[in-house]
Design a protein that fits this description.
Helices cover 61% and strands 0% of the residues. It is an all-alpha fold.
């Protein structure tokens, strides 16, 4: 009887672990789908955004990073340029970064 009980117990543990891993796998797939959706999107103002138009071809890594994070990435909803445009009805200065800071041109 003990052997049967141990076999059943082992099978139950295996099934429980399998279910746990499957549940976590499903969570991972859901997160990956969200990430892919975010990465496939672009800002609705991208084509008329002064910052993007002015700095999209720049070699400056900081500007490229802002564009990848805010204009085409996971921080799109946090863009201060978009917030400014929605609040005031007009676009901000071209030199206003998505973080809200201004780029001061070097003389």
């Amino acid at each position: 009887m003990d052997k049967i009980y141990k076999k059943i117990n082992t099978r139950i543990k295996f099934i429980t672990k399998s279910f746990f891993y499957l549940k976590n796998f499903c969570k991972l797939i859901t997160e990956l789908k969200k990430y892919k959706t975010i990465m496939d999107n672009e800002c609705e103002y991208l084509e008329k955004c002064g910052f993007f138009i002015k700095y999209c071809e720049t070699k400056d890594l900081a500007c490229r990073g802002f564009i990848n994070m805010y204009c085409k990435g996971t921080k799109m909803a946090e863009c201060k340029r978009q917030e400014y445009r929605n609040k005031n009805g007009i676009p901000p200065l071209d030199d206003m970064m998505p973080s809200g800071q201004l780029i001061i041109p070097k003389k």
